[in-house]
Amino acid sequence: MKKRIGLLTSGGDCPGLNATIRGVAKAAYGMMDCEIVGIMDGFKGLIENTSIEMEPKDFSGILTRGGTILGTARTPFKKMRKIEEDGVDKVKQMLENYKELRLDCLVCLGGAGTHKNANLLREEGLNVIGLPKTIDNDIYGTDVTFGFHSAVDIATEVIDRIHTTADSHDRVMLVELMGNKAGWLTLHAGVAGGADVILIPEMPYDPDSVIEALKKRQKKGKNFSIIAIAEGAMTKKEAEMDKKEFKDHRKSMKYPTVSYRLAEYIESKTDIETRVTVPGHQQRGGSPSPYDRVLATQLGAYAAKLISEEQYGMTVSIENNDIRATPLAEVAGLLKLVPEDHNLIMTGKLIGINFGDES
Ligand code: F6P
Question: Looking at beta carbons, which pairs linking 159-167 to residues 24 or more positions away fall under 8 Å?
Fold first, then answer.
């Protein structure tokens, strides 16, 4: 029997979304009699019923293309069951539109939030499959997400370029990388780029520990230092605050981001000129790396296999190089954060990287 497969991409975009879409489609067309429906702008498109009937040619030439051909939007899980001013019952609309589109299943490409929404639809009785996308690499149950390695490549190149100018000017340079809760990107790019200090959300830092590390380098005759800092990095003091206190404290900060505050502190405690670079959304832009193209193709094709076997309620993951299916229910609502004893942190410490945790 012909299957109608719905595809959507949700949450922040990243390199590799189109490569994954292509992987799903090519494998699905090869494996079964099917029609593919592209839902536009993530769950928003399912709520508003904006979709397109797709053809095999739509999936050609997109392997290397950044962004997502389906568009994306953020539709927070916490708002899904909330009826807002427009009076729309979002969940009801999605169920109705799934039915109206005569879908047999819905493939949701996205991050942690998307997986929560996908699981909600599974609980409501829809046939759902998740695919793990994010530059943050924080989806539970998978060793790696597509988009992550492309972002590491971009962030590492930024650090490489910052190195030469830091050296020329004898400066401390802070490179602020994406990652509000998870520090995987900063950790990997920091190690790959030879950062001297790496600050991630999972390891609250002591600003004076950073100062000590910088002074030590100065004493050794090193004329510059590089700090890779995640946008979600916080001080030890901040980590002790409750949620509200933390929010108010951050709101009252005069700095646009955490890096500017630390830069000012460094200049107040040392004689070293300090600068901040925030590459921002460049980390999510452009073509996926070869690694991500391979991973995206593998994960996408595996999703098609799950559809052909009617194994729904799963997300595709990779563990020890093995592509497999993990129940959405086991993944939704959990985050994969960097453990303090992660081997890359251990390696970093062995080679003298400061993580802001030594006093
Ligand atoms: O989830 C990916 C991510 O890039 C995070 O690293 C970052 O904190 C966030 O999205 C930025 O979101 P937006 O693009 O909505 O500003």
Answer: 159/189, 159/190, 159/192, 159/193, 159/194, 159/195, 159/226, 159/228, 160/193, 162/193, 162/226, 162/277, 163/193, 163/194, 163/224, 163/226, 166/224, 166/225, 166/226, 167/223, 167/224
Give the long-range contacts of residues 215-219, CB within 8 A, separation 24 or more: 215/270, 218/270, 218/272
Best CA proximity match to 190, nearest among 335, 349, 348: 348
Q: Which CATH superfamily is domain 149-284 in?
A: Phosphofructokinase domain (3.40.50.460)
Q: What is the largest CA-CA distance in the chain?
A: 73
Distances from the Cα of 102 to the Cα of 28, 73, 130, 238, angstroms: 17, 23, 19, 50
Classify 192 as helix, strand or coil.
helix
Spacing, Cα 237 to ligand 1 middle (Å) = 25
User: What's the chain's Rg over C-alpha atoms?
Assistant: 22
Catalytic, 341? Answer no
Res. 325: pLDDT tops 90 = yes
Whether 149-284 and 3-147+288-331 are alike in CATH topology: the answer is: yes
Given the residues 13, 41, 136, 138, the one annotated as active site:
136
Q: Are strands 314-319 and 322-327 parallel, antiparallel or unpaired?
A: antiparallel
Q: Is the pTM of this model over 0.90?
A: yes
Q: What is the C-alpha to C-alpha distance for residues 136 and 293, in angstroms, rounded to an integer?
A: 17
pLDDT score recorded for residue 359 = 67
Confidence of residue 1 (pLDDT cuts 50, 70, 90): confident
Domain over 3-147+288-331 is classified CATH 3.40.50.450: yes
Domain parsing of the chain, residue ranges: 3-147+288-331, 149-284
Q: Which residues pair with 39 in a beta bridge?
A: 51
Measured by CA distance, the residue closest to atom 11 of ligand 1 is: 12
